[in-house]
Design brief:
Strand content: over 45%
Strand order of the largest sheet: 3-2-5-6
Low-confidence stretches: none
Order of helices and strands: EEEEEE
Mean pLDDT: 93
Helix content: under 10%
Number of strands: 6
Number of helices: 0
Length: about 70
């Protein structure tokens, strides 16, 4: 309930930076998903309810996903 699981279809060949931004564009969390992984669990217990943008970036690729925290 207080965590979000990011799952990729294939394992990473490189590290990805994972950043979570508030709806105002403020960076609220930053971590790294290590090469070889397919799952990253993020604790969101300290995030206020609301909408967030999750950005995953590697050297040659980027993904953007929405996250909504509800309590």
């Amino acid at each position: 309930r207080d965590q979000v699981t990011l799952t990729l279809r294939t394992s990473l060949s490189q590290d990805l930076s994972v950043n979570i931004y508030s709806s105002e564009g403020r960076l609220v969390r930053s971590t790294t998903m290590k090469a070889g992984r397919t799952i990253l669990v993020l604790n969101v217990a300290d995030l206020a309810p609301g909408s967030y943008q999750v950005d995953l970036r590697g050297a040659a690729s980027a993904w953007h996903r929405s996250l909504v925290v509800v309590r």
